[in-house]
Amino acid sequence: MISENPKIGFIGFGEVAYYLSKGLKGAGIKQIKAVDQPIYSEIVRNRARDAEVELALTLEELVMRSELLISAVWGNLSLEVAREAAHFMTSDKMFADLNNSSPRAKKLAAEAINAKGAKFIDIGLMAIPKEEGHKALMYVSGDGAEEFKAIMSKYGMNIQIVPGEAGKAMTIKTLWSIHTKGTQALLWELVLAAHKVGVDLSAHEPLIQKTAMGDLVFSIPQWLVMHAGLHAERKSNELREIAEAMREWGIEPIVIEAAAKRLESVAKYSLKDYFKAEMPAEGYQAMLKAIDKISKEAEISVR
Ligand SMILES: NC(=O)c1ccc[n+]([C@@H]2O[C@H](COP(=O)([O-])OP(=O)(O)OC[C@H]3O[C@@H](n4cnc5c(N)ncnc54)[C@H](OP(=O)(O)O)[C@@H]3O)[C@@H](O)[C@H]2O)c1
After folding, report:
1. pLDDT at position 210, please?
2. Pocket perturbation via mutation, ligand 1, pick of 74, 173, 174 by most ligand atoms within 8 A of CB
3. Counting C-beta atoms within 10 Å of the first and last residue's C-beta, which end of the chain has fewer, N or C?
4. How does residue 206 score in pLDDT terms, banded at 50, 70 and 90?
């Protein structure tokens, strides 16, 4: 059982952990610590300072000093991180995994954590913390789901229980990601093609008007393109995880494999480093200009 004002420890302190921490601190959580890669980048140090989060030196130190561990790394690393953390877990702690991994990875992670007597929460994060902070909708399953909801709802977290074991919440998130991440890859293919042939999409009414599918190029997709640009490497890895889950379900991931390949091609420009993990105010066009510049310098061709 964790306390009513749990000591929280984030494993991975990227965009999600930063915005959740800021919100939770504002809502009254007293202690939040985090561990990121061993050498903290300037972005991580600045974000930690801003959110009043203390950076731990090792995963062991973080687990020892926290009651509720929240893993927020990359989907493809989630199982490895849970198994590593399990070494230090005890029955008085809980472990929540919000990564976009796969239903199978969540199930195996839960087994590793449960083996130490600690409860596990599978979180399918259904909204964007950068937009909605700690109130972003979370689907949760696993043996720790009820307790997590009972305690963290008091701090304004928007938690919905998906009945059943770890992996159930992730199943719904994976289905959702087929749509969202598939769309992001397709949008990148569109803007790269338009840029290559010198067409300004915003100048053509039929491309920006409202359709049954929503506003095709602007508003949300504009934002989606930039989010996918910053997180292209993570998202292409996660698309591979989705493809793996689909194969287990007996569905050939034809489009999802291609989407992974498209975002992989965007990832080689390291836009996250170029824009210091923040979306450029000028919109995705600034990312296209950056790609031109990086291509010239590094002799990578935009394809
Ligand atoms: N962003 C969203 O809105 C959103 C929405 C739903 C779900 N998610 C999920 O939330 C998770 C985090 O996403 P994010 O956007 O915060 O990604 P992010 O900004 O890339 O942050 C991930 C952080 O984890 C660090 N990391 C990687 N391996 C680690 C390890 N072994 N130990 C400690 N830290 C490690 C990374 O460090 P380096 O950069 O140095 O590698 C990075 O700082 C992902 O699984 C993602 O799928 C994100």
Report:
1. 58
2. 74
3. C
4. low
pLDDT tens digits, 221-265? 788 899 999 999 999 999 999 999 999 999 999 999 999 999 999
Q: Whose CA is nearest to atom 21 of ligand 1?
A: 14
* pLDDT of 114 above 80: yes
Asked whether 238 lines ligand 1 (CB < 6 A), one says: yes
Any domain includes 1: no
User: Which residues does 129 contact at the CB level (< 8 Å), separation at least 6?
Assistant: 15, 16, 19, 20, 23, 136
CA-nearest residue for atom 10, ligand 1, is 99
Q: Residue 34: enclosing H or E segment and its boundaries? A: strand 32-35
Which of 164, 184, 209 is at the close of a domain?
164
* Identity of the amino acid at 152: M
Are 81 and 177 within one domain?
no
30 shares its domain with 126? yes
Task: Give me the CATH number covering residue 15.
Answer: 3.40.50.720
* 9 Cβ below 6 A of ligand 1: no
As a residue count, the chain comes to: 303
pLDDT tens digits for range 2-41: 999 999 999 999 999 999 999 999 999 999 999 998 777 8
Cβ–ligand 1 contact at 77 (below 6 Å): yes
Note down the domain range covering 227.
170-298
Q: Domain boundary at 164, 197, 218, which?
A: 164
The answer as to whether 32 is a domain residue is yes
Q: Which atom of ligand 1 is nearest to the CA of 101?
A: 45
Cα–Cα distances (Å) from 9 to 85, 111, 272, 275, 289, in that order, read 11, 20, 24, 27, 38
**CB of 157 sitting under 6 A from ligand 1:** no
Model confidence, pTM: 0.91
Does residue 10's CB lie within 6 angstroms of at least one atom of ligand 1?
A: no
Residues paired with 214 in a beta bridge: 211
CATH, residue 178: 1.10.1040.10
Judgement on whether residues 147 and 69 belong to the same structural domain of the protein: yes
Give the separation between CA 197 and CA 246, rounded to whole angstroms. 35
Rounded percentage of the chain residues whose pLDDT exceeds 70 = 93
Question: What's the mean pLDDT when you consider all of the chain?
Answer: 93
